[in-house]
Amino acid sequence: MVLKSNSKVLTSLTPFFAMACIGSSRLCARVEKLCQQSGHFAQIRRRFTTTGVKLHQESQRPVTSLVQQCRQQNQTTPRDHTFSATRAMSSMQTQQPGSLPDLHVDPYRLLEDDLKDVYDDIRRELIMNTTVDELKTIATYYFDGQGKALRPMVAILMARAINYHKERNGLLPSQRQVAMIAEMIHSASLIHDDVIDQSDFRRGKPSVNVLWSQKKVTMTGDFILAVASMMIARLKNDDVTLTLSQVITDLVQGEFMQLGSKETENERFAHYLTKTYRKTASLIANSAKAVAMLGGADERLADVAFQYGRNIGLAFQLVDDLLDFVSSSSTMGKPTAADLKLGLATAPVLFACERYPELNPMIMRRFQEPGDVAKAFELVHKSQGLEQTRFLAKKHCVEAVRLAQSLAESPYQKGLIVVSDLVINRMK
Ligand code: FPP
Ligand code: MG
User: Rounded to an integer, what distance in angstroms lies between the CA atom of residue 212 and that of residue 347?
Assistant: First the structure.
């Protein structure tokens, strides 16, 4: 069912899923079945069998620079741009300090002027749309500049890269608005998410639901969304309106999907991937597509932007799901080991299940019985689930780099490539 209704998403996801499953024959057999159902078996199998072993071996090594890897695959000789290599005060640190020397581009530094007022401007938009003081306070609470600003950063990099590709310079005001709208939709969804998850902490401070009542917090999420909708309307571009509205329907559906679980392992992975696209990747993909459309991209170019965002978004969420098992709460600024406690079986568990089938009943009962969370946590660490998750994330980053490389070479196009390194190597 999921495959049928989301065949476009899943068709493009399955090759990477397949590759991540190398080394596990039963899971591979199920992947083949998934691919057959989606009607692209032959093509996927070819990629699966020809590149799989090499990629698996590669996954055993520490993560190396994706940029380097993709450079080796790309025959064209890029022009040599030298930009400031000093890394800005980015909260997306890499695990390997040497993972960015290749391009000498720091997206945060590159976009310093574009990004520095984004949060002030969002706060101003929110404040001028209400006379209720408490609503102003709650609505602006998460726009304190402490986030990673991944969504505005990707939107602006893509906008500038597309403009350059179309032999234009600069950033259109409408494209900057999309960057702000993306961050607003994201924060509105986090506010709702914090109520649903009853979370305590976000971005290193008490989450909104701890400080204010559920009723007020929920309505504030709606308010932010309403202000974002007005900003979308002001763009006066029906295609962009449709593209960004799609994000909101995806977010809600993704969150709904997360409340349910599937019986079989096959269904579970397909369900997880679609949920991940809708909950995380759709916003990044569709805002990248929206800025591309505003920059005059044709359908093919807008799809490059969309696919880039989709791959970055999927990788980002896979790494998030991985960090939930390996990072500390103080590093993340939010509780870790949280997914199991919330009853969620993310990629590391789904992969671990292949090696430890005793996880299946735990997944079905959403880790509710005493000892389930601790046992599942232990089994995930004993299995290859974490490596397989990172491997799958890396494949999406490699694909994002390939897509970025199809754009004309510019500082911003290089920034898009570097973002994939930040995503795969991030620690928080
Ligand atoms: C974080 O998930 C949550 C999201 C990425 C999206 C949540 C979407 C909704 C609540 C639907 C409503 C949407 C709108 C726009 C009002 P997480 O719990 O996995 O991550 P976390 O650890 O950061 O909380
Ligand atoms: Mg949450």
Answer: 33
pLDDT digit string, tens, across residues 292-302: 999 999 999 99
Fill in the DSSP letter of residue 203: T
| Terminal alpha carbon distance of the chain | 35
Closest CA to 320 of 272, 287, 384, 358: 272
Average pLDDT (294-315) is: 98
Residues 6+ apart with CB under 8 A from 288: 154, 155, 158, 305, 306, 308, 309
- Is there a contact between 346 and 324 (Cβ–Cβ < 8 Å)? yes
- Looking up tokens 């660490």 gives 381
Query: Which backbone phi and psi does 94 adopt, to 5 degrees?
Result: -100, 155
Q: Which residue, by CA, sits nearest to atom 11 of ligand 1?
A: 252
266-296: buried (b, 16+ CB within 10 Å) or exposed (e) per residue?
Answer: bbbbbbbbbbbbbbbbbbbbbbbbbbbbbbe
Q: What is the pLDDT of residue 103?
A: 64
* 179, 162 Cβ separation under 8 angstroms: no
Tell me how far the alpha carbon of residue 95 lies from the centroid of ligand 1, in angstroms: 26
Q: Cβ(63)–Cβ(425) under 8 Å? A: yes
Report CA(57)–ligand 2 centroid distance (Å).
34
Shortest-distance Cα residue to atom 19 of ligand 1? 339
* Ligand 2 centroid to residue 345 C-alpha, Å: 14
113, pLDDT greater than 90: yes
Euclidean distance between CA atoms 257 and 269, whole angstroms? 12
Determine if residue 236 is left, alpha or beta; phi over 0 gives left, psi from -120 to 50 gives alpha, anything else beta: left
Please give the Cα distance from 196 to 186 (Å, whole number): 15
Mean pLDDT of 39-52: 23
Helices 118-127, 173-197: axis angle to 10 degrees equals 70
SS3 state at 153: helix
CB contact at 8 A, 179 and 152: yes
Residue-wise pLDDT for 58-73, tens only, equals 232 223 344 444 344 4
198: left (phi over 0), alpha (psi -120 to 50) or beta: left
Pocket of ligand 1 (CB under 6 A): 185, 188-190, 192-193, 196-197, 199, 221, 225, 248, 251-252, 255, 279-280, 334, 338
